[in-house]
C-alpha cells in the first residue's frame, strides 16, 4: 500500500501554543509509518502557510520524501510567526499543496490543521484586510475542485471555533469530510496522541475510499 501524506498547517503567530505539539505529533507519525514498511510505504510532505503580509515567508513547502530523517530535519525549522488580521492565506496554502507538491501514489491524504479561516465575508465578518476574498483571485470552489480532480482526500484538524463557517462552506463544495477535534489541547501530550490517532484514521479512511 503506497500513500502520499501531506500536512498543511497554519504557521502564523496565533498557532504558537500549538505548533510545537503539532510538530512533535507529525514526527511521531513519521516514525510510526516508517515501521509499517513494507506493508505501507509512505511519502510525507508539508505545506505551511501564513498570510499575504508575510512576503517570502507566506508559504513554507517541503515536497514529498520517503526519508523520515530528512523530513523531520526540515520540519524542525518551522516556527509560528507572522500573520496580521484574523483570517490567513488558507486558500493559498491549500492551492500550493495541491499544485506544487509532486503527488504520485494512488492513495493521497491531505491533513489540514489551522485555527483561522480564509479571507472573505463568506468565512468571517470582522478583522479582515481582504473582505472581498483572496487578493490573488483564488476561490474555495477552484482550489477544492482541483483537489478533488487530483483525487486527494481532505481532512481537517479543528483548533478553534473560528473555522466553523469554513468547514460548513467547504462541505458544501466537496461533501462530507472528517473533522478532528484538537480544541483545548495546546502543546500537550494529549495533542500528540489526538493528532497521531487522527492521522492514522485519515490514512485508513483514504485507503477504504480507494478500495
TrEMBL record:
Key words, A-Z: Secreted, Signal
Keyword match Secreted: yes
Residue ranges of domain VWFA in the record: 4-199
Localization in the cell: Secreted
InterPro entries noted in UniProt: HMCN1-like_VWA, Thr-specific_kinase-like, VWF_A, vWFA_dom_sf
Keyword Metal-binding: no
UniProt name for this protein: VWFA domain-containing protein
Biological source species: Rhizophagus irregularis
Amino acid at each position: 500500500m503506497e500513500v502520499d501524506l501531506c500536512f498543511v498547517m497554519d504557521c502564523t503567530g496565533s498557532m504558537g501554543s500549538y505548533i510545537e505539539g503539532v510538530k512533535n505529533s507529525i514526527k511521531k507519525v513519521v516514525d510510526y509509518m516508517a515501521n509499517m514498511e513494507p506493508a505501507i510505504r509512505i511519502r510525507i510532505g508539508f505545506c505551511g502557510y501564513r498570510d499575504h503580509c508575510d512576503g517570502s515567508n507566506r508559504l513554507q513547502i517541503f515536497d514529498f520524501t520517503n526519508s523520515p530523517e530528512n523530513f523531520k530535519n526540515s520540519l524542525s525549522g518551522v516556527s509560528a510567526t507572522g500573520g496580521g488580521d484574523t483570517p490567513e492565506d488558507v486558500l493559498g496554502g491549500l492551492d500550493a499543496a495541491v499544485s506544487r507538491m509532486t503527488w504520485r501514489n494512488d492513495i493521497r491524504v491531505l491533513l489540514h490543521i489551522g485555527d483561522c479561516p480564509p479571507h472573505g465575508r463568506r468565512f468571517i465578518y470582522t478583522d479582515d484586510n481582504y473582505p472581498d476574498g483572496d487578493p490573488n483571485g483564488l476561490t474555495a470552489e477552484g482550489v477544492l475542485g482541483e483537489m478533488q480532480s487530483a483525487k486527494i482526500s481532505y481532512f481537517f484538524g479543528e483548533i478553534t471555533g473560528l473555522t466553523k463557517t469554513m468547514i460548513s462552506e467547504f462541505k458544501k463544495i466537496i461533501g462530507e469530510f472528517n473533522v478532528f477535534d484538537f480544541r483545548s489541547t495546546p502543546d500537550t501530550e494529549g495533542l500528540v496522541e489526538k493528532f497521531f490517532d487522527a492521522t492514522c484514521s485519515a490514512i485508513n479512511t483514504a485507503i477504504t475510499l480507494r478500495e
